[in-house]
Amino acid sequence: MKQAYxxxxxxxxxxxxxxxxxxxxxxxxxxxxCFFISCIGVLSSLTSRRxxxxxxxxxxxSFTTGHLVFALHAAALKQEQVKLSGHYGYLVGLVTxxxxxxxxxxxxxxxxxxxxGKHAKLFTGQRLHASVGVYAKTATTANIGDKILFKNVxxxxxxxxFTSNDLGLAKQGIIATIFTxxxxxxxxxxxxxxxxxxxxxxxxxxxxxxxxxxxSPLSATYSSLLFFGNKQHALTSKLQDxxxxxxxxxxxxxxxxxxxxxxxxxxxxxRLIPLNIRFKNLFLCVFIGIYALCSWESTSFLxxxxxxxxxxxxxxLGREIKTLHLLTLVCMGMIxxxxxxxxxxxxxLTFGLTFGLLTFSKYxxx
Length: 366
Fold this sequence. Notes:
The protein is of the alpha+beta class. The protein contains twelve helices and six strands. Helix 1 (2-23) packs parallel to helix 11 (323-337) and helix 2 (28-45) packs antiparallel against helix 3.
């Protein structure tokens, strides 16, 4: 158990490094030097038998890594924003995500991977390699995988400092936002329905629509929220308002507990079937993978999914499973992939509460 707490200290060092870099940026060059020195310190500590020295070196490396990861992500975002800012005669990109909005001005939000455009700063044939969020005033017929053209759009130049608005963009994995004033500003160039991403999206929409259309409006809303994790149903806002009056809005949010209940239900069913335990675990992994593909992701859902898959992988290899280690590993992986997640409440709550329950569970049992 002591090793698990040491692992948690390294995670705390990683988070603290990110927070400190956001408050007081140090620059990439000195951070690279510190990271190199920390790596040497970790390698040197391996030759020593003092466990306190191992922990100190690991904490120093985690703290420096947090600094460096945030600095690299922030610098890359600012560089892309500067490169992309300006007024474009047209922009061409591939739709990678689509979301309906309950907003008085905008009906849809598209995530588009830009491929090219017409701008004075761009050379002929130059690819942009940037993702932007598009707010459309009218509903589009674009689907995921379609190539779309935007006309006469402007992208504002970024501020010099890293702001809270940049944090919101970075969490979504986009560089900037585009607002379309009318339906004449965009046109679908070609349908790319044969791509893997488009096929998965179409299959997910077909499964969702088949289930929802066979239910009553109220049951469809509950199923959309609790089973699919989709908040775009027409009655969602009204239902959330009613739950908010009693302070029960969190009951409408799908969490990792839903995966646990789903796995527990299938595990009870599989116990009645005379089959090798490894094949039962493999079936559970495949089932949960299919469920993840046909539902909308969230931070808590991904946390539970990754922990479950890692635990099943450990069982398949015959390794000892420690949930606290796996949760820490998943948390570190998500932070390294996107360090901006730690500034948002959904990430803080789902990991904070789970860490708290796992850490103090032995005292609660007593």
